[in-house]
Amino acid sequence: MKLPIAVPIHNVKSFYHIYLVDFRYCWCCYKSYFKIKKSEEFWVLKREGDEKSYTIPLNKNSNQICNILYTIGLQNKIMKMKLIQDNKIIKTKNFYNLNSLINSIIFTEKSLEGVMYVK
């Protein structure tokens, strides 16, 4: 009986996505606030209007990440988070503070761990 041939796949990325966060600046309109994505070792956060990005180590818990966000000048606002995959919005959710936003992002990341996106 012949065994099937297995070909190892190296450096395959799992589900790749970006979180875009907008804030509500009047009763009906939102403006871009920041985007955040998970890399191999860091959370990469880019504020709207900034040329540079912040990197936050993955070993930080949600409270530590929120404290970092407050320290760099982000504030609690009414926010809309959009989960983007291949330039498509696959999930949208509203938040009233950074803590619930970060908890949701971390929960989503853990849920999607190991999920592959194949075209």
Description:
The chain is an alpha+beta fold. It is globular, with a radius of gyration of 17 Å. Helices cover 21% and strands 34% of the residues. It has one domain (18-112).
How would you describe this structure in keywords?
single chain, 119 residues, alpha+beta, 2 helices, 6 strands, 21% helix
Give the low-confidence spans: 7-11
Oligomer: single chain
Query: How are helices and strands ordered from N to C?
Result: EEEEHEEH
Question: Portion of residues in helices?
Answer: 10-25%
Radius of gyration: 17 Å
What fraction strand? 25-35%
Number of helices: 2
What's the total count of β strands? Answer: 6
How far apart are the termini? 33 Å
Shape field: globular
Largest sheet: 6 strands, antiparallel
Biggest sheet strand line-up: 4-3-2-1-5-6
On the 0 to 100 scale, the average pLDDT is 86
Structural class: alpha+beta
Count of spatially separate domains: 1
Which helices and strands occur, and which strands form pairs?
Layout: E1 18-24, E2 30-38, E3 42-47, E4 54-57, H1 62-71, E5 79-85, E6 88-95, H2 98-112
Antiparallel strand pairs: 1-2, 1-5, 2-3, 3-4, 5-6
Helix pairs in contact: 1-2
Quick summary of this structure?
This protein is α+β, with helices and mostly antiparallel strands and 119 residues long. The protein is built from two helices and six strands, in the order E-E-E-E-H-E-E-H. The protein starts with 17 loop residues before the first strand and ends in a 7-residue tail after the last helix.
